[in-house]
Amino acid sequence: MNPCDVSLYGIIDPHRTRNRSLADLTRAAADGGITLLQYRDKDGDTRTLIENAVTIKQALSGYNVPLLINDRVDVALAVEADGVHVGQSDMTPKDARRLLGPNAIIGLTIKTEEHARQAPLDLIDYACIGGVYSTMSKENPTNIGLQGWAAIAAHFRHVAPKFPVGAIAGIDASNLEAVLKNGADGAAIISAIFMADDVKAATRELKLITNRCLS
Question: Could you give the domains of the chain?
């Protein structure tokens, strides 16, 4: 398992930026304290994804923040990203690991207890469980809530206590503490960071909560 800090996991999506510069937003979030950044764009064509990923990667230069690409292993390879995050209907972790090699960070979305039981812990470096709360950034037919999150996370805590398990969907400064106190190693956050008026300040506020709860 590759070391991976999911404590403040930013997800940057061009559709959730208020049409602002990806580079500027990336630097602001990195200054604010994100520990991991995922670039996600469900609608962009391949060339656009590569161009944006290069922009984001360049903006992260000098920061110790790994860049992951959502779903698209080909884009991750093209821009030499640090890894990928895949969902249940994307390329399998086995194939992603074969293509990206042993040093890439590979994360997996988990939505059910069955997904947790089937997760190949020898091939992935972290999991994100959700959606926990309602969110405008992605369609989630059902929200599992904190109790549902804990029930799914219990599998990982039993078989691999040190395996990083994050939470995702609808998490912001108002509920982050509850999520972390419920046992999450961190949270993946989109709108509360990248839709904020002041991205750096919003990220710093989340960072303070994270540090206080996880210290």
Answer: 8-214 (3.20.20.70)
